[in-house]
Request: fold
Amino acid sequence: MQYQLVLQFAADAISDYDALIAIESQLIAALGEAAVDGHDMGSGEANIFLPTSDPQKTFREIAPLLERIGFMAAITAAYRRTDADEYHVLWPQNSSRQFSVA
Reply:
């Protein structure tokens, strides 16, 4: 896998952690355990990490699930090459937001 796709949303409460685990579990059920590389939460954000060889394709595959569970409006999805630090935002489309993982 050459890329890391990150799903990020604002989080600062225990209920946000519960949501993070629930979303991660649904992604694992849909994609398989190897398709999800864990999560973290801190500094006001929660992140789910997905290793992939094609971040755009992976995001297109999971977008219907994220929409169905009402998560699309809350997330920013970005990717980077695993040998680089710069992230490129996939969602929301045409975002000019600077993306980072704390």
In short: The chain has a mean pLDDT of 93. Residues 87 and 99 are 6 Å apart (CA to CA).
